[in-house]
Every structure is written in structure tokens, then in C-alpha cells.
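Complex record, two chains
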Amino acid sequence: MVASLGMPALAQDKTKVGFVFVGPVGDGGWTYEHNQGRLALEAEFGDAVETVFVESVPEGPDAERVMTQMALGGADLIFTTSFGYMDQTMNIAAKFPDVKFEHATGFKRADNVSTYSARFYEGRAVQGHIAGSMTKSNIVGYIGSFPIPEVIRGINSAYLHAKKVNPDVEFKIVWAYTWFDPAKEAEAATVLIEQGADVILQHTDSTAPQAAAQAAGNVITFGQASDMAEFGPTPRVSSIIDNWAPYYIARTKAVMDGTWTSTDTWDGIGAGMVGIGEITDAVPAEVKASAEALRDQIAAGDYHPFIGPINKQDGSAWLADGETADDGTLAGMNFYVEGIVGDIPQ
Amino acid sequence: MDLSAINPILLLASLMVAATPILLAAIGELVVERAGVLNLGVEGMMITGAICGFAVAVGTGSPWLGFMGAALGGALLSLLFGVLTQYLLSNQVATGLALTLFGLGLSALMGQGYIGIKAPAFPDIHIPLLGDIPVIGPIVFQHDPLVYVGLLLTGGVWWFLHKTRGGLILRAVGENHDAAHALGYKVIKVRMLAIAFGGACAGLGGAYLSLVRVPQWTEGMTAGAGWIALAIVVFAGWKPWRLLLGAYLFGGVTVLQLNLQAAGLAIPVEYLSMSPYLATIVVLVIMSAGRAPGSLGRIFHASR
């Protein structure tokens, strides 16, 4: 409604799209891919859109200042690209009802706030499958960023699928409490390797863990958010690639056409929002084949990574045999599945 | 919890590596502050050193040339600070903060073409005989050369400050620049040299991150290490050996807390994450901090 009223004025000038980034655009991971989406947007619409972005915005009051400035600067649509911007996005959206907001990976919505996220846990299932098949020490190291549902979902999904192919597998989880700090990520990876891990999964944004694994030798890793192909064929044996471009283009188009409404998008491998990077030859052929089969099954919708029977960590039943997890539970996931050792920091 | 998973030898060995970037930056800043200059731009000089070192090492294929380039880059940036504060008499606190912001931006610009490139390898040296001693060998004598450069610098700075005439002059300038000036010492020249030394050390510290510790270039990769170096100088009471202790303590607890997490220790992670800062402050405060140099942060002009 609001959009259609605003359109005649907007149609005459450029549509201005703002991006708030949590890291530098050159992080080689999460923010890098969001920025690729922004560049694709510019390539698609040319002079019809103008994009602005601010990088390395802390997840705190500073974010509100950045969003306010973008809104005052005439932005029609603002993408806030980190979980920690959730409340700030809601606050600023309430002050600027004519500006559209899109918050990544969150769960709070309003008339002018949409949420979007990707089902990274689908990619984590493929990673877990390869990790469980390839580990020799049966210890998989996992570098977590913050204990939020998004990260916990990834740990659970990877663990379930590693366990499926390797009942002896054990996960060692380290919380870095940062999305981006190469030195700390490198240290975390080194510590995990010293404690016997020969597979490192990361949910932080830099390529530092890849470099640490490479230095250690005989350790495999997976690209996070971005392909990180420069570390292949080992240690990086595959990756999860975030592909935001189609979504950014579609949503900007909706603003231009005046058809934008508040939505909740959560797409996975099938819709192309999550890509699985090339599985290198360092992975045995039969593991590669089964991993690709798993990927294709998920993409086709024939298989859900969270399918029962699954118990929670404390042994209580979560999903019955054949039952799949509903999106509500997944979106707010705050528990480990049975078999993972350790507590989630509260 | 499985504490046996933690190998104390590897823990102590990685402690020395984790502490080195902070140690290098802090020992330079200690000399600067002993000369009476407060340069808050350590973070900016570190990150500039990180990209200069990385660029030179990639360009020439030699990590050693990279480290020299890093020292040069850090020193050049610090001389900008020196000219502004010593000759143009600008406020040191404001100029230092501006230097950090400038360094972060400059390094991001310089690093545009270096994202995703790998640095040439900088192998550990296995010191003959000493490196073969059980336990102590792997902890102390099997590191990359820069770890020892950090130790030598710390010893060298202590020796220079306390055993040489030049060190006496530098301390005199830092304690009371008017008296030093009255005695005929060139206050500004001494301070410019100290500032350049501090910049070179910070540059080395930054390059240690981009060439050894991480090793690659990413924007903002120092992630606050420069501020920790600044804090350690103060808490160490401007004394080189205490500074070494502070840096190793910080590096040690950082590595230890990650080890404890991976071993599944039942302490909330938040406490573990803050422990390096807490432990370093508590120990250095208990050891009672020294007195700040008398002229620290004050502007010197011969006519006043």
C-alpha cells in the first residue's frame, strides 16, 4: 500500500539501495558474498539503481546511526546483513515507515521489514557427511562464532550427518565470539588441530582457519560463505557458497514495481541461495559421489536434514521416526542434538 | 571434560607465537613513551606494516624483505605523526587516534589487490642441539626467527635504556624535556628517532600477523592488537622485562582459554573469553605499575 503511494515520485529518480555490512567487503567470506550481490544488482539495473554501503559496522548502537543516515540520505530499500542488527533494524524501520528494510538471518518482521536467510544447514549436512567419512582421528573441530540459532543449527546438522557415516565421530566446539578476527580464528583452528582434529569446520568469516590447516598439513576444511577455492584442492575440499544476487535483484525489482511486501524468505540448495562448492579430488570418489547424491536429494526436496528419529542432547525425544523439523523450531534452535558433548553458552 | 587432550608442550610453544605480534608492537611503543611521546596510533601502524610486509613479501618472494618493508612502512607512517606532533605541535592524543583511523583506511586501499593471495612460506627454524632437548626444545627452540627477534629486541631495549649513554639521554628527554633541552640535548631529534623506532616495531608486529600468524592479508586483520599493546605498556610500568611477561601472559591465557574450550571445560565461555584481559591486568597491577615518564604526552617547544 505504502509502496504504491510512494511510487510516482520514486519512479522519476533512481532507486537507492543501502547495505549495512558487518565485516570488510574484502573478508573473503560472508560480507564478500553480500557485496557480490550488491555488484550484481548494479550490473542488472545499471543507471536505474544507486547502491550505497557501509562496511565493518558494529552490531550495536552504531548500526542504528548508519541505518538512520542511509534512510535520511534517500534510500528506498536497506539490507542489513547480520543477525546482530535485528533490534536496530526494527527500531529504525519504525521511524521510517516509507523505507523498506530487509534483515538477514533474523526473525522479527514488520510492515516494512522483511527477513531473509538461507538454509545453510542443508550445506552443513553435506559437509558433515564428507567430514565424517574422511576423518581418521574421529575428531572434528568446529569454530563457532556466536551461540545463535543459525550457528547451532549448522553444528547439529553437520554432527548428525557425520555421525550417520561414522558412529565414532566426536565434535570439539570452540566459540570465538567474533564473526571476523583472522588472528583469533587462526589460533582457534591451531588449537583444535593440536587437540587431534583433522577436519575443521568454521562458522566465522575469514580464510585464516584455511591457512592454519594448510600449515598443519593433513587437515581438511570447507569454505564458509564464499568458495575460498584458492585453498583447494586441500585443505579446502568443498564449501558452502552464499548466493544473494537473485534475491537482491528480485527484491529491488519489487520496490521499483511497487509490489514489495513484507515477507519471510528462507531458501536453500534447491532455490540456489545455498551453493555447494566443487568437491575436490582430495575426497575419495565414492564419498564425493554420495555427498553429491545427498546434495541433489536435498535440492529436490526428497530429503530433509532434520528427519527423525532425533533426540535432544539430554536424551529427550525431539523428532519421531520419519518426522521432519518445522521451520519455527529450526529458526529458534537453542539445543544440541544427542551425542554432542558440551554446553551451549547462554 | 578431557584435560589430557591439551598438550602442555604445544600450549607453551603456541603461547610464544601468539604473544609475538603484541610484544613487537609494545616494545616499540615503550621506547616512544619513555621518550615522552604518547602515540596512540599503534593499531594503524601495525595494520600498515601488515599490508606493506605482505605486499613486499609477495612481490619479492622473500619474507625477510617483507619484514623490512613492514618496518619501513610502519616507520614512515609514524614519522607523519612525528612531524605533526613535534614540529607542528599538534595534540598527541588526537593525532595518534587519527593515525589509527588513517592507517586502517590506507591499508584497506593498499590491500585491494592482495585479497586471497598466499604469502611465501616462512619456515620455523629448528635450532641444532638446543632444539633437540626434550620438552624445552620444542617449546623454546623450534620457532620462526621473528619470535627470537622479539626477544632480542626486548633485551636490546632494556640494555639500551639502562646501560648506554643514548638510553640515559632518551630517558632524560622523557622525564623532563625542559631540563634535557637546557643541557643541550636535541629533544625533538631524540623523539623523532624514538617515534620511528616505535613505528618500525609496530610494522613488524603487524607483518608477523599477515606473514606468519594468519598468514594472509585481510582488511582489519589486526582486530585491536595495537590497543592491547598500548595497554600492556602502561600496565608493565614502562619496564621491558615486565612487558615481556605481560605479552606472554596475554598470549598464554588466550591460547589456554581456546584449549580449555576445545577440551570441554565446564566454565561458561564468556568468562574464558574475558580471561586474557583480566589475568594480564590483575598480574601487572599486583606487581605495582611503575611511574609514567614525567613529560609523557606534553608538547615541547624550545621557547616555552
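Note: Chain A touches chain B at residues 23-28, 56, 141, 147, 172-175, 177-178, 180-184, 186-188, 190-192, 194-196, 206-208, 211, 215, 230, 341-343, 345-346 (CB under 8 Å).
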